[in-house]
Design brief:
The protein is about 0% helix and about 70% strand. By secondary structure, it is mainly beta.
Length: about 90
């Protein structure tokens, strides 16, 4: 991720606001997403431990927004339903 340690971006789509933000910490990265009503989003996150990913404080599979996921080496691909979410995941090695 180089020298960038925080990104904040938003877009107003036909369905409503879309946001994608992240902040790099010493041991984990914090993410914040807003997905408009009646929409789904595919989110791919780099992480050293996909099983340690937390969505609004809960394990990813237990979060109400969770639709499905695919585990990849040092990555997780999530399909999320509409809503506003805060996530935290251990940084890649």
């Amino acid at each position: 991720m180089g020298n960038i340690n925080e990104v904040r971006t938003s877009y107003v789509a036909a369905w409503g606001p879309v946001e994608s933000n992240w902040r790099l910490g010493a041991t984990q990265t914090e993410y914040e997403f807003t997905i408009p009503a009646n929409a789904q989003a595919t989110v791919e996150l780099r992480t050293a431990s996909p099983d340690a990913l937390r969505i609004d404080g809960a394990a990813a599979g237990d979060a109400p927004c969770f639709v499905s996921s695919k585990m990849k080496p040092e990555k997780i691909e999530l399909i999320l339903g509409s809503g506003h979410y805060r996530m935290a995941a251990p940084n890649p090695r």
